[in-house]
Structures are given as C-alpha cells and as structure tokens.
Specification:
This protein is an alpha+beta fold and 824 residues long. The protein is 29% helix and 24% strand. The chain has four domains: 120 residues, Topoisomerase II, domain 5 (Alpha-Beta Complex); 81 residues, Gyrase A, domain 2 (2-Layer Sandwich); 130 residues, Orthogonal Bundle (Topoisomerase, domain 3); 312 residues, DNA gyrase/topoisomerase IV, subunit A, C-terminal (Neuraminidase, 6 Propeller). It has 18 helices and 41 strands. It has a four-stranded mixed β-sheet. The protein has a four-stranded antiparallel β-sheet with strand order 10-11-13-12, covered by helices on one side. The chain has a four-stranded antiparallel β-sheet with strand order 21-18-19-24, with no helix packed on it.
C-alpha cells in the first residue's frame, strides 16, 4: 500500500519484500560488516597460531596435497589453484604473493615454505610467475600442522560447503612472535617484528614454570626483535616499553664499519640493513644524495653482496673526506637507520586486542594446553577402542573352538555376528573383528602378540587418563615439546642489541669537528675559512690578501675555534647572541663572506665587538664563569649557566654606561687571574675572585683605572698551574710585537692603574693586541685593516722585558694599521 506523501519527502512505496531503509543506516551497517570481515578474515593474525587466514589455508592445502618437507617439489601454480578452488576465493596474485613471502628468507625469519626457483630478492626483484616456481612445506611448518588429524582444533565448512578447513592450526611453535606479522585492516593495523625462536621458547618454558613472571622477567630471555636481515637495535628502555604496552618504536640500523685502505683512503662497508629495507633502493638513494650534494666525499658505491648472509655494500670515499661525517649523513637521510613501530595487535577469540609480550606467550600456552588436552582425549579414545577390540579377540581365542563352531553353523555373516554377540556378549565391533580375523592369529606367537598389545594399550590408557587428570603432567609435556623444538630449530641471534640509545643525528653530527678560522669585519661581513688557507711565512713578511673588503671596511675579529663550538656574539650594546661555528658559511681566503645580519637579529646600529667560542665542555660546567671587560675598564663576572641557551633574538649580557663598549669575554675558573692591557701600554693583573658573580643585567665594577684617552685593547686569563709557562704577547698598530713572561706581571688588586707592559712610540703606534700565549708551539695570524694577513710561529717572536717595544712581526703598507691577531 502506498504511504502518504510527507511535506518534505517523496512518497515511498513498499510492495512485496521491498523495505524502506535510510541510506546512511544501510551504508553504516554494510561498512561495519565489511570492516569486520577484513579484520577477522583477512588482515589480522590469530594469537594462537600467528597466521592470517590466507597463510593458514596455504599451509593446510599443501599438507592435504602431500607437499611435506620430505616430498618432492610441485609447481606453485598447483598450490595456488588448490588454495583458491577449495578454501580461499580471492585473487591468485594475492595468494601467490602470500606464498612467496613464506619462502623468502629476507622477509620471513623462519621460512615456512621451501621454494625452488626465483622467489624474489632483497633488491625488490619480483618472484617468477607461479608456473615457473616450485614449493613444498619447510620442516618447521610441520610443527604448525602437527596433530591436526587428531581433532585438536575445530573445523568449519569452506566457502562453498564442499569440504572443511581448520579455524586455527594446532601450532607447536609461536609463529606470531618468531616470524612476526604486518597487516593493515580497517581502522587498525598490526606490526609485530620477528624474533629469535630459541629466545621465545626459553621465555615460554620460564612462563610455564612461573605463571606470575613479569614482562621484565621475560625480557631476560627475549632480548628484542631478531630480523632476518640482521642489523642493530638500540635502547633496551624503548624495547621494554614496546613489549610492556604492545606499542612503541625501536630504532634499528644497518651494520657499517669504516675501513682504512692501504692507499690511505677510507671505505664504508655496510654488512647488514634494517628489516623491510630494499637494498637496491637504499643504494640508489645514497647515489641520489651524493648527486644532490647532500652527502659529500663519496667517490663510488658498489653492491658486492652474494647472499643475504653475505650482504656487502662498499662505499669508496674521496681523499680528504670525513668517513664518520659521510656515515652519519647516510644514517640521517636514508633507511640505513629506521624505526620499527610496534603495534602488537592480534585476534583473541575473534576480537582484536593490543597485547604485551607476556599476554602473547600466555595465550600461546593456553592454546597448547587445549591442543594437548584434545590430542590426549583423541589418543585415549583410540586406545580405548583398540583395547575393546583386543579384549574381544583375546576372549575369542580363549574360546576358539566354540567360536568356530558358531560361525560354521551360521547361515551367513550377519547371523554369525548376531550369534557371537548373543553367546559371548561381544559388541558389534568385537564381533566384526573376530569375523575378520585371519587363521594365522591362531598361532601361539600371534596369540601372544595380541596379549602383549592389549597390555601395552591398557598401560597407555592409564597414562593418558593420568595426563588428563593432572595439570602438572600436561604442562610437563608442553615444556618438553618446547625444549625439543628449541633444540631442533633454534639458532643464533642475527640482530645485535645495544643497551643504550642512539642520539638523533643532527646537522652537527654531519660536520667534521675541526679547527676553523672566523673572520668578522667592521662592516659586519662574516665568514669562516680553513687554517691551511694561510701559508706560513717568516716574520717581517708582507703577508697575503685575506679579505676582499669594501672601501673603509676592515677586519675587527679574527679567531680560531672548532666547527662544533657554540659562538657567543657580544655586541657594543651589551647583548649576546648565539650561533654554531658550522652555521657560518665557509669561504675562501679572498672572499668577502656574508652579512652577519643574515644570522643574527641585530638592531639598527648594533655591531658585534667580541666573539667567544664556548666549547661544550665549558658550557656544561656549572662552576664556570664568564669574565667581561669593557673598553673603559669595567669588569663583570657572570656564571656560564646564564648563557646555556641564548635565543636567536639575543639576551642582555651586561648593562653598559653611555659611550662604553663590551670588549672582551673569557671563561674563568677559581684560582685564575685576569690580565688587561691598554692602548697606551699599561697592564694590570688581578685575581678573578676580586670580582664577585653578578646577574646578566648588572653593570660591573672598575677593573682598571685609565688615564686621559686611554682604553682597554686586550684582556685574557692566566691559569695558576700554568703561570710559569705562559707569556703575554703584545703587538702595536705598526706591526711590532713581543712576548713577555707572565711572571713579570705581579698580581695586584683590581681598580689600579697597572704597570708598563710596552714602550709606546710613534714608531710602534698604540697597542692593538694583548694576548696570553701557551708554552706549546702555536702560530699567530695577524691581519691588517686593509686585509693583509701573515701567519708566523710564536717562536719567531722574541721574549723581552715589559719596557721594550718589540720587533717587527708584520710589514705594513703605508696608511695601513694592524686590526687583530689570532692564536692558532
């Protein structure tokens, strides 16, 4: 009957079996049905046998075809056809792909299928067509199918109800763990890595003995994933977390070593790669990175692998390349380092659950208890049936003459059966066995065999009944089988486990830690160069041009530091900024560099007046302090902790008086002293403890009293235990320099006018540099305001008294003056 038409809807007519349903309701119900089908019948493994339906059907079909490990190989097409036709009505490509995965030693830790022919490779080569390859079950697959015929598991009708198939295999091995699984369902996924069978079996035995064992206890046996491709996994904390919760990431790396060749060049040899990584694609990725200049120093890449067990990728490096830098870049940019994300999801009684290691092992032991119980019940029933027959035969032999007489007098077999059952109280089974008995059984020895067999069967019945009555006996059988499987199939671990974690590879890990020279001009151009850009010369030389400076620009800072050093840039405004040395672009000796405004957020008119390389070791020491000295002689001490993390926008380092500039900053420790020098040739030395630690916002105290237009040009620290070895190096504007023993500068209180450190004359010009030199052989790089540079050893500069003017270190062109000197 037609329904009445609603104001806002079209009339819906229901006739016969047509039922009106909301589209959204139908779509929801249909999608849920589809999702559950994918989850339960396709993508997720059963926690008991660790198999997805397609793999279970493949193994079962191969057993039904007689393709056991002792049989001859048969075409894979035969197996696939049998699986599709009888049990798995899906695509042949999907079924063959599942079959080949079970045979690939690089995909499966313990292959369940033995393959003959091309079954693909770790380089991503596809298997040959199924008509070309052959397969049979591997020996270990027999452990999954063991006792299947003994009613150990339930069978259900196949898709067309023409035969039955097992809902789960009786598996005596925990396939879910030792081979792992990957699967994507609808709204959920599973990712369980493969493990070492010996370790898993040991954990099962331990858990069988100690039901209250924790995940931590079980991890004493199961060290972590054991991939078929080997590799290294890191951080036992991450591993423990993943096994405790069923989720988590475990970092894996391929094994690689740096080899020194006889030619002096280096090679990186990769001997294993992470699980599920395509070796050919890895090599192509490395080659692409080399081509794109993201990895430098690689000359050639070769795949010298022969088998999975003999993986070998050789990477030849150019002379001068840094092997560890190249290897770190490969780890960072390729899948030679990858993370396996655990998601231990499996079906427990048809319901998907995320499981811990202990829970998986508990479910497997529970499965084995059910299998052993059902197997024992089957064996008991068969033994009882056999005993029943044997008892009938024995009784018949005891009355053989009468039995023969009854049979002879009977008209036919059914009557003979009936007469025997009536006369001797035989069951129908017993009567049939007697009627089928051969005359040879009447012989004395044959008769004895029946009696012996009956005794043995009765003893077996007692034993089987005892097992069914005792949980301890059943558990003992399960543990015995675990140990037998461990002895038969156990092997050594392939994947190495490193207890600690591996830090994330940063840009710094890919930069070689080496000396580098930083050059900063008054106009704000900055660069870094290698020290070998400057050729060593004798003192008094003209030097070489370093920087292509603009007119009226000149070098103000020249300093050496490690490429990994944290550089603190102090400005005339009393602020401090931070950069890594390697963040400054490298340039050649004659290049100008780039504007420092590209790297630091300097305000208008603000310029860098001092740069301090702060090594990591210094930065991490809480007792380390920084001593600051200004141009007008003000000193201030701040604990280094205050500069542990300096933001790019900068922070206040020191509050300055109007017209003053922050000149020098140095790390100092207890017992150190500080020496200051002025442009008019005065110097003062005082203990660092004379200035107490202050906050970053403080203004400081007087360090040295200056007269007239005098100002501080240099400040350095003196370590007490090295005092006798050190000299104080000064150099004037016109290129004259000298060294003076530090012992000539006696310690006095801060705030005084100091003592003479150099004789200042029109010939020398004002002092420009005042630096402490160590006793070790060092080199000096002097730079003029017009960009001339000379590099000499400190030994070439003579040691003289405080009142002398020194010798010519650098010959300057007319109108040029010394800008700075750096100690290398």
């Amino acid at each position: 009957m037609p329904n009445k038409k609603d104001k806002n809807e079209e009339a819906i007519i229901t006739t016969g079996s047509v039922i009106p349903v909301e589209l959204s309701t139908e779509m929801k119900a249909s999608y849920i049905t589809y999702a559950m089908s994918v989850i339960v019948a396709r993508a997720l493994p059963d926690v008991r046998d660790g198999l997805k339906p397609v793999h279970r059907r493949i193994l079962f079909a191969m057993q039904q075809l007689g393709l056991t490990s002792s049989a001859r190989f048969r075409k894979s097409a035969l197996v696939v056809g049998d699986v599709l036709g009888k049990y798995h009505p899906h695509g042949d490509i999907a079924a063959y792909d599942a079959l080949t995965k079970l045979a690939q030693d690089f995909s499966t830790r313990y292959p369940l299928v033995l393959g003959q022919g091309n079954f693909g490779s770790i380089d991503g080569d596809p298997p040959a067509a199924m008509r070309y390859t052959e397969a049979k079950l591997a020996p270990i697959a027999g452990e999954l199918l063991r006792d299947l015929e003994k009613e150990t598991v339930d069978f259900v009708p196949n898709y067309d109800a023409t035969r039955t198939e097992p809902t789960v295999l009786p598996s005596a091995v925990p396939t879910l763990l030792f081979n792992g699984t990957l699967g994507i369902a609808v709204g959920m996924a599973t990712a369980i890595p493969p493990h070492n069978l010996r370790e898993v079996m040991q954990a099962l035995v331990h858990l069988a003995d100690n039901a209250d064992a924790t995940n931590e206890d079980l991890l004493e046996f199961v060290q972590g994933p054991d991939y078929p491709t080997g590799g290294i996994i890191f951080n036992k904390k991450d591993i423990a977390h993943a096994y405790s919760t069923g989720r988590g990431g475990v970092l894996a790396r391929g094994e690689a070593e740096i080899v020194e060749l006889k030619s002096g060049q280096s090679q990186i040899i990769i001997t294993s790669i992470p699980y599920k990584v395509n070796k050919a694609e890895l090599i192509i990725k490395i080659a692409d990175l080399v081509h794109d200049k993201k990895i430098e120093g690689v000359k050639d890449i070769r795949d010298e692998s022969t088998t999975l067990a003999d993986t070998r990728i050789a990477i030849d490096l150019k002379s001068g390349a840094y092997p560890q830098k190249v290897l770190n870049a490969i780890y960072k940019h390729t899948d030679l380092e990858t993370t396996f994300h655990f998601n231990m999801l499996a079906l427990v009684e048809g319901v998907p659950e995320t499981l811990s290691l202990k829970r998986i092992l508990e479910e497997f032991i529970a499965h084995r208890k059910v299998v052993v119980k059902r197997r024992t019940q089957f064996d008991l029933r068969k033994a009882q049936e056999r005993a029943h027959i044997l008892e009938g035969l024995k009784k018949a032999l005891d009355h053989i003459d009468e039995v023969i007489k009854i049979i002879k007098q009977s008209k036919d077999v059914p009557l003979a059966r009936e007469n025997l059952m009536k006369r001797f109280k035989f069951s129908e089974l017993q009567a049939n066995a007697i009627l089928e008995m051969k005359l040879s059984k009447l012989a004395g020895l044959e008769r004895k065999k029946i009696e012996d067999e009956l005794a043995a069967v009765l003893a077996l019945i007692d034993e089987l009944e005892g097992i069914l009555k005792s949980t301890a006996k059943m558990l003992a059988i399960i543990k015995k089988e675990f140990n037998e499987i461990m002895d038969k199939y156990g092997d050594d671990r392939r994947t190495k486990v490193v207890k600690g974690g591996v830090k994330e590879i940063s840009v710094e890990d890919m930069i070689p830690d080496e000396d580098s020279v930083l050059v900063l001009t008054r106009g704000g151009y900055i660069k870094r160069t290698r020290p070998d850009e400057y050729k060593r010369q004798k003192r008094g030389g003209v030097g070489v041009v370093d920087l292509d400076t603009k007119e009226e620009d000149f070098i103000t800072i020249l300093m050496a530091a490690s490429t990994h050093a944290d550089l603190l840039f102090f400005t005339d405004k009393g602020k401090v900024y931070q950069l890594k040395m390697y963040e400054i672009p490298e340039g050649k000796r004659a290049t100008r560099g780039k504007s420092i405004m590209n790297f630091l957020s300097l305000s208008e008119g603000e310029r860098v007046t001092s740069v301090l390389p702060l090594p990591k070791a210094v930065k991490e020491q809480h007792e380390m302090a920084l001593m600051m000295v200004t141009k007008s002689g003000v000193g201030k001490k701040v604990m280094a902790d205050s500069f542990r993390d300096v933001r790019r926008s900068g922070i206040i380092a020191m509050k300055l008086q109007k017209g003053d500039e922050l000149l020098s900053v140095m790390p100092v420790e207890k017992s150190d002293s500080v020496i200051l020098a002025s442009k008019n040739g005065q110097a003062i030395r005082f203990k660092e403890s004379d200035i107490r630690p202050m906050g970053r916002g403080a203004g400081g105290v007087r360090a040295m009293k200056l007269k007239g237009n005098d100002e501080i040009i240099g400040a350095d620290k003196v370590e007490k235990d090295k005092e006798g070895e050190l000299t104080f190096f000064t150099m004037s504007a016109n290129g004259l320099g000298k060294k003076t023993k530090i012992k000539e500068y006696k310690i006095q209180k801060r705030g005084g006018s100091g003592i003479k450190t150099a004789k200042i004359t029109p010939k020398t010009g004002a002092l420009v540099v005042g630096r402490i030199l160590p006793a070790d052989e060092v080199e000096l790089v002097a730079m003029s305001k017009q960009g001339q540079v000379i590099r000499v050893t400190a030994d070439e500069v003579p040691t003289s008294g405080r009142q002398t003017q020194g010798v010519r270190v650098m010959k300057l062109r007319p109108g040029d003056n010394l800008a700075s000197v750096e100690v290398l």
